[in-house]
Amino acid sequence: MNSDLKKRIEKLTEESKTKLIKMAIEDKVSYQEIFKIYSFTPNEVEKIMRCELEARQYKRWKIRQTKRSTVKGRPKLSFDS
Fold first, then answer.
1. Out of 3-7, 8-12, 25-29, 35-39, which region has the weakest mean confidence (pLDDT)?
2. Is the dihedral of CA 14, 21, 57, 5 positive or negative?
């Protein structure tokens, strides 16, 4: 994780971190919505999840995320707007 990302994560309150993690875990929230609120790209969200979740939880989340990646729209994201 690069220093810029670490600084941005440190600026988040514990409540915001918890909300971000819950949003990433939910099936209904897209990465675009997370980007609009927190300005984290899907790859950055993945890095945050890797650091914040326990190894077993992260593996389960990653498997679920991979299976539903088309539902969340990950392959076709554009963060220009």
1. 25-29
2. negative
